[in-house]
């Protein structure tokens, strides 16, 4: 579903906003798929600690807000103090966003691949940690 949404978004952005097509589609797709993988795992981890559906918003909101700020979506990281910006660069949405930016407007194929190594590695680490959390805390049995 995420890939279908991305294809529709790219097409709409090119037609309606006049944006160029992505420079490096494989890096863009990697950012989308890896971002989906890590956030599905983080959602499952948060579900392990959420007692009711009403509490789901409360348990996930802090993580999502920090991720949105850390990825530079809500506030540009350059406008934050350097220590805060450096901390936020390590959040799970930041490398996914960086990969998508590299795929859309980054350098040519070879340059984008070299630039994508660090965010891809950080995203892989977040994915492993999140899935280890799922294996540790998530249970399928009904809650009582």
Describe the structure.
Residues 2-131 form the ABC-2 type transporter transmembrane domain. The chain is mostly helical and 144 residues long. The longest helix is centred in the last third of the chain and has 29 residues, at 109-137. It has helices at 2-16, 25-48, 56-70, 82-88, 93-105, 109-137. It has one domain (22-136). The relative contact order is 0.17. The mean pLDDT is 85. It is globular.
Number of domains: 1
Number of helices: 6
**Helical proportion?**
over 70%
Residue share in β-strands: under 5%
Radius of gyration: 17 Å
Helix-and-strand structural type: mainly alpha
Q: What does the average pLDDT come to?
A: 85
Instruction: Give the helices and strands as they follow along the chain.
Output: HHHHHH
Oligomer: single chain
What does the overall shape look like?
Answer: globular
The largest pleated sheet is described as: none
Low-confidence residue ranges: none
Total number of beta strands: 0
Distance between the termini: 33 Å
Give a concise summary.
By secondary structure, the protein is mostly helical. The protein has 6 helices and no strands. It starts with a helix and ends in a 7-residue tail after the last helix.
């Amino acid at each position: 579903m995420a890939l279908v949404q991305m294809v529709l978004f790219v097409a709409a952005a090119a037609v309606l906003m006049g944006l160029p097509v992505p420079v490096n589609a494989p890096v863009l797709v990697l950012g989308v798929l890896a971002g989906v993988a890590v956030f599905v795992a983080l959602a499952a981890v948060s579900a392990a600690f959420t007692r009711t559906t009403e509490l789901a918003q409360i348990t996930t909101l802090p993580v999502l807000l920090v991720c949105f700020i850390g990825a530079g979506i809500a506030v540009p990281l350059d406008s934050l103090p350097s220590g805060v910006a450096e901390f936020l660069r390590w959040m799970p949405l930041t490398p996914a966003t960086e990969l998508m930016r590299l795929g859309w407007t980054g350098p040519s194929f070879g340059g984008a691949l070299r630039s994508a190594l660090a965010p891809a590695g950080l995203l892989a680490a977040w994915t492993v940690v999140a899935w280890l959390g799922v294996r540790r805390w998530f249970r399928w049995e009904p809650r009582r």
